[in-house]
Design a protein that fits this description.
6-stranded parallel beta sheet; 3 domains; single chain; alpha/beta; 2-enoyl-CoA Hydratase, Chain A, domain 1; 8-stranded mixed beta sheet; about 600 residues
């Protein structure tokens, strides 16, 4: 009887395991078939490239959850790399006659929007047309769509052209209620990453820097829109101040923000007219994925300019738990850069940095590896949405740095934050603590009490030393004196436009400009562009992360604009004590 039960239970367990494995394999197979159908690389004749400006614009294609493939809804991410590749090919592809932009709610950093818009501008210069339509336009989507030959709006729609704002969240009052205080150590008047945990409002220094970079970004966006819509910047500002908020749709036409009001059925007729289709002819659409994956004819060239993508927070190790966002990890980045250094076919490396920073220790290790790489071949930095603090740390030693005018960069400073939960533990929970030790510092940072005077002094000195090292790295890389670096440091955030004027970047430009500069430094006229690291197969997200990524996506969707603040609070306990990162998630809208 005992053997019967044993074998029966073993059979049941085997069946359950087999069912689970079969389900995973089936999910992968079905999603694989759907994915292959959705990215076939076949572009129909006489087709229109349809780009839906909704969800999130991310650095590389494939960052979204594999569950998106099986979803009946719309795509939730646009990969900037894939979009730019598709626009370049679409300009030369005779089968692609024009582009249809479908406006919506698009989340992205201003610099990434700017780079996508530049790709669309290059497409227009090929002589092809762009038509845009939206039921409603977010400010980011409208900024992109304003470049179109025709901008159409639903008669019941609206355009969010109201200017920009940054609204940080402060947790100090909540922490006081639960009996937790944040012990803060920092260098830099503008290094305001700690403010949400010790203040209830922005400091004057922080308010000054935020106002400065918001003005810089907004002015750049307005100049681009003004040029496309043949309006003055002053007119656009006046419209943002009052006219565009909760107005009737025809007001947007009167003020030349859009060309005409139309329903979706009208838009299809507009596209058919541009394609010179007969009434019975089919209207063919193609996608970014299909165009990007279409054949790229040309001879094989051995010499290569490598583009290495470094995006996300800078950490010593990959994120744990259900926080599975992409990050720049020390060991993986060092290993990847070593391989590029040793690859004889790689003549130069462009490092695409899009990072708010993170661990100061990890940033120093990556900086060192960049120096080893630079000793062998040219290294050029292409800054994306942000390359600030640790993101600037790993960039400052390159041969040349490119940034978009609206890139957030600088923030040269470091800080440390260590929670003091002694009030929560002792007064609210009734715990008590004692200690036996052999040396004066044996219980450094012990639980149940705040730092004492000696510990506080040592911690601040440690932060000061880290700041001086950061200053030295920037001074050496940029050919500046330490004092001149300190004059623009202090943790202050600059836009790329501002950073150019103070010597923190060399030139304003996009990734293509950085690649061209790298080729020039490598003295090579003919080259291929390789992109690293190779994207992780989408199904590994299921096998490695399972429900974690799904849960993460649900949290992001539920919390919306509050998600970054929630994620920051959740990560604090796992962060390195010494951080070189942006003041906080900029929360620009």
């Amino acid at each position: 009887m005992k053997d019967f039960l044993k074998y029966t239970m073993a059979s049941v367990v085997g069946i359950i395991l087999a069912s689970v494995i079969f389900s995973v394999i089936s999910l992968i197979s079905v999603a694989g078939m759907i994915a292959s159908e959705g990215a076939s690389g076949v572009v129909p004749e006489n087709s229109v490239l349809r780009i839906k400006l909704q969800g999130e614009l991310v650095e590389r294609a494939g960052e979204g959850s594999p569950m998106d493939i099986l979803s009946q809804g719309e795509e939730t991410t646009i990969g900037l790399d894939q979009a730019l590749e598709a626009l370049k090919k679409a300009a030369d592809n005779e089968d692609v006659k024009g582009i249809y932009l479908e406006g919506g709610l698009l989340a992205a950093t201003p610099a990434m929007l700017q780079e996508l818009r530049q790709g669309l501008q290059t497409f227009k210069e090929s002589g092809k047309w762009i038509v845009a339509y939206g039921d409603n336009y977010s400010s980011g989507a409208y900024y992109i769509c304003s470049i179109a030959d025709e901008v159409l709006l639903n008669p019941s729609g609206m355009v969010d052209w109201n200017g920009m704002a940054s609204q940080p969240i402060f947790f100090t009052g909540l922490m006081e209620k639960i009996g937790v205080k944040m012990q803060v150590f920092k260098v830099g008047t503008y290094k305001s990453a700690v403010e949400p945990f010790i203040n209830t409002e922005m400091s004057e220094a922080n308010r000054e820097q935020v106002q400065s970079y918001l003005n810089s970004i907004w002015n750049n966006l307005q100049k681009d829109v003004a040029e496309s819509r043949k309006l003055s910047v002053e007119t656009l500002n006046a419209l943002a101040d009052s006219t565009t908020v909760l107005c009737q749709a025809d007001v947007y036409v009167e003020n030349k923000l859009v060309d005409q009001l139309a329903y979706l059925s009208d838009v299809k007729e507009t596209l058919r007219h541009r394609l010179e289709l007969q009434q019975d002819d089919e209207l063919n659409f193609t996608t970014l994925a299909d165009v990007a994956n279409s054949d790229n004819l040309g001879k094989k060239i051995d010499e290569e300019i490598a583009v290495y993508y470094a995006y996300g927070e800078i950490n010593d190790a990959p994120a744990a738990g259900f926080n599975q966002e992409h990050c720049i990890t020390t060991q993986q980045t060092i290993t990847d850069l070593q391989e590029l250094r040793e690859d004889e076919d790689v003549k130069a490396v462009v490092i695409r940095v899009n990072s708010p920073g993170g661990s100061a220790y990890a940033s120093e290790q990556i900086w060192h590896e960049v120096q080893l790489l630079r000793a062998e071949k040219p290294v050029v930095i292409s800054m994306g949405g942000m390359a600030a603090s640790g993101g600037y740390y790993i960039s400052c030693g390159a041969n040349k740095i490119f940034a978009e005018p609206t890139t957030l960069t600088g923030s040269i400073g470091i800080f440390g934050m260590i929670p003091d939960a002694s009030e929560l533990l002792t007064q609210k929970l009734g715990l008590t603590f004692d200690v036996v030790k052999t040396n004066a510092m044996s219980d450094f940072g012990a639980t149940g009490r705040p730092f004492n005077a000696a510990e506080t002094a040592k911690m601040q000195k440690y932060i000061n030393n880290g700041y001086e090292l950061f200053i030295a790295r920037v001074a050496g890389g940029r050919g500046m004196t330490p004092d001149s670096v300190k004059a623009v440091a202090e943790g202050r955030v600059w836009t790329g436009e501002q950073a150019l004027k103070i010597g923190l970047v060399d030139q304003l430009g996009n990734l293509e400009d950085a690649i061209a500069a790298a080729a020039e430094l490598a003295e090579t006229d003919e080259y291929t562009v390789g992109r690293y690291p190779s994207p992780e197969p989408w199904y590994m997200s299921i096998l490695n992360k399972g429900s974690n990524e799904y849960l993460e996506n649900q949290m992001r969707a539920a919390l919306g604009e509050y998600y970054p603040a929630f994620a920051l609070v959740r990560r604090i306990g796992k962060m390195d004590q010494i951080q070189a990162r942006l003041p906080y998630d900029p929360n620009i809208n």
